[in-house]
Specification:
Elements: H1 7-29, E1 44-49, H2 72-79, E2 80-88, E3 91-93, E4 97-98, E5 104-106, E6 113-116, E7 124-127, E8 136-138, E9 141-143, E10 146-149, E11 153-156, E12 162-164, E13 167-169, E14 172-175, E15 179-182, E16 187-189, E17 192-194, E18 197-201, E19 205-208, E20 213-215, E21 218-220, E22 223-224, E23 230-233, E24 238-240, E25 243-245, E26 248-249, E27 256-259, E28 265-267, E29 270-272, E30 287-290, E31 296-298, E32 301-303, E33 313-316, E34 324-326, E35 329-331, E36 338-340, E37 346-347, E38 363-364, E39 367-368, E40 374-380, E41 383-385, E42 388-398, E43 401-402, E44 408-413, E45 417-418, E46 422-424, E47 429-436, E48 440-447, E49 453-461, H3 468-474
Parallel strand pairs: 1-2, 2-5, 3-6, 4-7, 5-8, 6-9, 7-11, 8-12, 9-13, 10-14, 11-15, 12-16, 13-17, 14-18, 15-19, 16-20, 17-21, 19-23, 20-24, 21-25, 22-26, 23-27, 24-28, 25-29, 27-30, 28-31, 29-32, 30-33, 31-34, 32-35, 33-36, 36-38, 37-39, 41-49
Antiparallel strand pairs: 40-42, 42-43, 42-47, 44-46, 44-48, 45-47, 48-49
Length: about 475
């Protein structure tokens, strides 16, 4: 057979090259790999964690189940890339974690996905300006933390993560049982923060400087010396749309303590059923405000709080800040609604005090509260022929300020049928519809959240029947 010159040598070289390539690939996946050749898979955009089925390894997390990583901390430190997500299966993870720049940590839901510090803490740490708003912690219960500050979550040194849809409970610290925010600007929203304790300040959230946005949370059942729910110290943050209830301070500020040179905006919150010390003169069951601070209070409902000096709001201390408070509902608190311990007069115009004639029974100390929000009711029309229907409105408005949107009004009537027995204000007005097939006077009563009532009368008139003989006689 004819043979091409050098063909055998070139064929042998080609076969050798193929074998090198093939056996090289086998060195990664085959049985005869050595540990020096086995390197970690590059960090990925989506890493799965499963505490029950997973195993921490250099290649874990590419898929859920047995291929997942076992711990959140390992996945964050070793497996996920910036811009990626750590997806955590339901279970209890007994560890503490540090958030990573650009990474979202997503649990399967706060009811089923638990990070338990087991007496260590903080359970979750966000540290430094590199932790920006693309860093997210969502869908967890954070519990079991113990630390000097921020036993549940600590956010410091300019960090600005998004903390949402979590339950933060049963954590203990000196400052900020649930959370400590130190010179940072996180967004903390739609969380349940409950049953946390602090030996000093803020069983719930302690804010030291910075400008956090704290909104839509339920902050309840927390306890501390000062600021059972929140302690805001020197911060320019916003606290809006939260339910702050059933928190306790053994000294002052059952719901919120505002301290130092704080310039925070506190708006649209329901602050109710909180308690401050029954013996400590610096009370404030709802809020305790340091006169050095300059917070802005608007559209809050502060009711049913208890405390010795100003069960609703206490203003005390020394300094030259300016409290701005208009358009709030401050009523139903035990004792004084507002208690000013300082020699500085306060502008409290345009608030609802649970009465159309507020005075020294509601406000103690130097304050200008006139004009105030007043409550009235009327019907459109006030007279109607049966069967008839009218619209009845309650108005809470004064000095250009309406009561907060969503202020509940209860309705009752002595005649006819109300289409709804409860409604809420919008722009300071709540309304219902009254119908009756019977003639007579209906007295309609509107009642505010603290039990104050106003009335308006509606006349349902019987129809007039004119008989034909009489009509013919009258027209002759």
């Amino acid at each position: 057979m004819y043979r091409f010159p050098g063909a055998g040598r070139r064929l042998a070289q080609l076969v050798a090259l193929i074998l090198v390539i093939f056996t090289g690939s086998l060195s990664v996946s085959g049985a005869h790999r050595d540990s020096t050749a086995f390197a970690a898979t590059p960090a990925a955009q989506l890493i799965y964690v499963d505490g029950a089925q997973g195993t921490d390894s250099a290649t874990c997390g590419a898929n859920p189940g047995p291929a997942a990583c076992q711990t959140i901390g390992y996945a964050l430190a070793n497996r996920v890339a910036a811009g990626g997500t750590v997806s955590v299966a339901a279970g209890t993870y007994r560890e503490t974690i540090t958030l990573k720049p650009g990474v979202k940590v997503q649990g399967a839901g706060a009811e089923t996905t638990i990070i338990d510090g087991g007496g260590s803490g903080p359970v979750v740490t966000a540290d430094g300006a590199a932790i920006g708003d693309t860093v997210v912690l969502s869908g967890f219960t954070v519990t079991g933390g113990q630390a000097a500050s921020g036993a549940g979550i600590t956010i410091r040194n300019g960090a600005a993560p998004l903390i949402e849809n979590n339950t933060i409970r049963n954590n203990t610290a000196d400052f900020g049982g649930a959370m400590h925010i130190d010179a940072s600007a996180p967004t903390v929203r739609d969380n349940t923060i409950r049953d946390n304790t602090a030996t000093s300040n803020a069983g719930g959230i302690y804010v030291w400087q910075g400008a956090p946005a704290i909104s839509g949370n339920t902050i309840e059942g927390n306890s501390s010396g000062w600021g059972g729910g929140l302690f805001v110290n020197g911060s320019a943050g916003t606290i809006s749309g939260n339910i702050i209830q059933e928190n306790t301070a053994t000294a002052g500020g059952g719901g919120i303590q505002v301290y130092g040179l704080a310039t925070c905006a506190i708006s649209g919150n329901t602050i109710e059923s909180n308690s401050a010390s029954p013996t400590e003169p610096m009370g404030g069951g709802g809020l305790n405000i340091d006169v050095a601070a300059s917070p802005v209070l608007s559209a809050n409902v502060v009711r049913d709080n208890t405390g010795l000096a100003g069960a609703g709001i206490n203003l005390g201390g020394t300094g030259s800040g300016t409290l701005t408070a208009h358009g709030n509902v401050i009523c139903g608190n035990s004792g004084y609604q507002f208690y000013n311990e300082t020699p500085q007069s306060v502008d409290l115009t345009g608030n609802w005090w649970g009465t159309n004639n507020p005075g020294s029974n509601e406000i103690h100390g130097l304050a200008n509260y006139d004009p105030w929000i007043a409550m009235s009711a009327y019907a459109i029309p006030a007279r109607v022929t049966v069967p008839g229907t009218v619209t009845v409105r309650a108005v809470l408005h004064g000095d250009g300020y309406p009561a907060p949107d969503g202020t509940p009004i209860d309705w009752r009537t002595t005649l006819g049928t109300l289409h709804t027995s409860a409604s809420s204000t919008a722009g300071g007005v709540a309304q219902t519809v009254l119908s009756s097939a019977s003639a007579g006077q209906a007295v309609v009563t509107a009642t505010d959240p603290c039990g104050f009532s106003v009335e308006t009368a509606v006349w349902f008139l019987g129809s007039v029947r004119v008989y034909m003989p009489l009509l013919l006689y009258l027209t002759r």
